Amino acid sequence: MSAAIPLLKEGQDDPALDGPPPPRRRGAMTDSRLRRVLLYAALVVAGLTFLVPVYWLFSSAVKENSDIYQYPPQWLPWPPVIENFGDAWAAAPFNHFLVNSLIVTVVGASIKLVNASLTAYAFVYLRFPAKNLVFLLMLGSLMVPGNVTLIVNYITMANLGWINTYLGLILPSAGSVFGMFLLRQYMLTLPSDITEAAAVDGAGHMRKLFQIVLPMCKPMLVTVGVIAVVDMWNDFIWPLIVTNTVEMRTLPIGLLYLRSAEGYNDWGAIMAGTVIVALPMLVLFLFTQRHIARGLTAGAVKG
């Protein structure tokens, strides 16, 4: 006869389940630790790849010219040479460069953001013929290199008499297809019940856009705005082509002017000028990185 199997009373636990859980295999634990170590090592290498050049730039901006070429390198400059920033500012008319960059960046980025918002709203909430085809054609324009349109834009600006003017600097780059795409994808994730309720209450498109849709798109608006600001601030080729006087140059062109003025001798001043150009965008990113991460991860992948 087979051994009798004891029956468990109601509420009684199985003694076989009361023991400790089976130990994990040592090989699996070792593989998990190895993968974690390799992941951290890869992150450290990637971080150093970006941080070391930036640190070298900022440290070289406060070094003596001879210390920049010193080997082994001097990683901690002491005493700092703050005079490099004054030499850079005096060697080139950075006051004109800074004012021009601020005007071009603020006005150009604002126009880009407004255009992207209006276009994205139209593609999501309006009905018009061949809407999907127009959207695909606009996305296809992202595949065209910007250098292809330089000659056409220059001829257009010359015919309009806008060479060496703020209009010539700003208007050719007043549209942002990439920003429109990001905002459109984010608007597709918004609940339609809110906009439908607003339409029932008699709200028009402009009221829905500015009072309902855009406030809910704040993370993506910040993302698109930062992208537009960085794009306008760092633009080099177009300002170099469309301006022909020093008084209308922007900061990236000012670095080229500074290098030609200083030659290859005073690299401390050149590095200080580079810090003047790069520092505002670094500060802007540090203050907006949380909104950028939220905007890019919330709705940019929804079709």
TrEMBL record:
CDD domains: TM_PBP2 (cd06261)
Subcellular compartments: Cell membrane
GO cellular component term, pick one: plasma membrane
Recorded topology in the membrane: Multi-pass membrane protein
Membrane-spanning intervals of the chain: 37-58, 102-126, 133-155, 161-183, 212-230, 267-287
Family according to the record: Belongs to the binding-protein-dependent transport system permease family.
Descriptive protein name: Binding-protein-dependent transport systems inner membrane component
Upper taxonomic lineage: Bacteria, Bacillati, Actinomycetota, Actinomycetes, Micrococcales
